[in-house]
Design goal:
It contains one helix and eight strands, in the order ββββββββα. The strands form two sheets. It has a five-stranded antiparallel beta sheet, with no helix packed on it. It has a three-stranded antiparallel beta sheet with strand order 5-6-7, with helices on one face. The relative contact order is 0.21.
Length: about 140
């Protein structure tokens, strides 16, 4: 739930690992609000108007180096982007939520129920996670 949106040509970091350069951000690209899946300077932005103070269920998904990232908002597929490079991997088992790890580009708002899976979920499962928050994904099942 954003309490403010980025100003012109700025970004607010939502989730990711800055050491890998992989994540999900809100950006203002020359006055156009976007949600962006990015990797080491390459991004897949999606134009999106968000309302301040409203909760959104945002899912960024990609399966590996040869796939395109996908974006879902409130259980609905919004588009596929094209990264110029694949998803990085790092032995560091952490990610930042709402902060880049510095005092700049911090997300101004609330982030709740962050989940990370080791495989891409189907659009049906993503919708269930949005529509039925108590739904759990069994990691032993390949969705």
């Amino acid at each position: 739930r954003a309490e403010s949106l980025p100003s012109q040509d700025d970004m607010h970091f939502i989730f990711g690992n800055p050491d890998d350069g992989v994540g999900l951000t809100l950006i203002n690209n020359e006055g156009i609000q976007q949600v962006e899946v990015y990797h080491t300077g390459h991004s897949a932005p999606y134009d999106l108007s968000l309302n301040i103070g409203q909760w959104y269920h945002i899912v960024g998904s990609w399966t590996g180096p040869d796939s395109s990232p996908q974006l879902y908002i409130d259980g609905v597929f919004r588009g596929t982007g094209a990264l110029e490079t694949g998803v990085a991997s790092n032995s560091e088992p952490f990610a930042f939520v709402g902060s880049w790890g510095t005092s700049t580009h911090n997300f101004d708002g609330l982030v709740d129920e962050v989940r990370v899976y080791n495989n891409a979920l189907s659009s049906d499962i993503i919708y269930l996670l949005y529509d039925q928050p108590s739904f759990t994904v069994d990691p032993a099942i390949n969705y």
